[in-house]
Amino acid sequence: MAQVRGIIFDMDGTLVDSRLDFDAMRHEMGLPFGIPILEGLASIPDGPERDRMLEVLRRHELRGADESVLFEGVLEFLSHVNDKGISTAVLTRNSRETTERTLKRWGLTFSQIVTREDAPPKPDPTGNRLIAERWGLPVHQVIVIGDYLFDLQAGRRAGMRSVLFAPGEMPGYAREADFILRDFREAKKLLDKFATGDE
Description:
Order of helices and strands: EEHHHEHEHEHEHEEH
Number of domains: 2
CATH topology of the largest domain: Rossmann fold
Helix content: 40-55%
Shape: globular
Radius of gyration: 17 Å
Strand content: 5-15%
Number of helices: 8
CATH architecture of the largest domain: 3-Layer(aba) Sandwich
Distance between the termini: 11 Å
C-alpha cells in the first residue's frame, strides 16, 4: 500500500463533538425529517424564508462551535503526524465561520481548511481533490478520516482510502470504509496498518 503523506479530516463528529441536534435543526428550519440539511437548503429559492433558515443553521452551528468537545487522543495524533511530516487538512460541510471558531477554540491548525463556501459539500469529491492538488500529492497517498457516510463516499470518489471514525455504535455504512478507527489513541497503529497493508 502507498505511503500516507496527507490526511484529510472531517471536523464535527471526528475531531470534535459539537453536540448538534440535527433533528431539532431540521424542525426549526422546516425541513423534512431525515433529509440532509445542506441538500434541503439547496431546494429553497432565494428569499426571506431561505434567509431565515440560514440564520437558524448559523445559530446552531456557532453554538456547537462554542460547546464543542475535543475527542480524546486527537491532539496527540496530530502531533504525531506532524512529527512524521504528514500534511493535514480539514474538509467540512460546516461554514468557514463555524470551522475557524471551532479550531481556534481548541488551538488546532492545519495546512488547509476547505468548507462549504470553498467547494461543493461532501459527498462531492471536489474538496478532496482540491486539497491533494494543492499539496501536490497523488490521491493514493492521501487518506480521509471521518465519521459519516458522506466522508467515506467523497474519499472513495476522489480515489482516496477512507477511515471511519466510530467511537460508539458501529453504523451500517461501516462497510464503505477501508479501515475502522474506534479511538484516536489507537490512530498511530492505524498508520502502521496503512504502511504494511495489514487489515
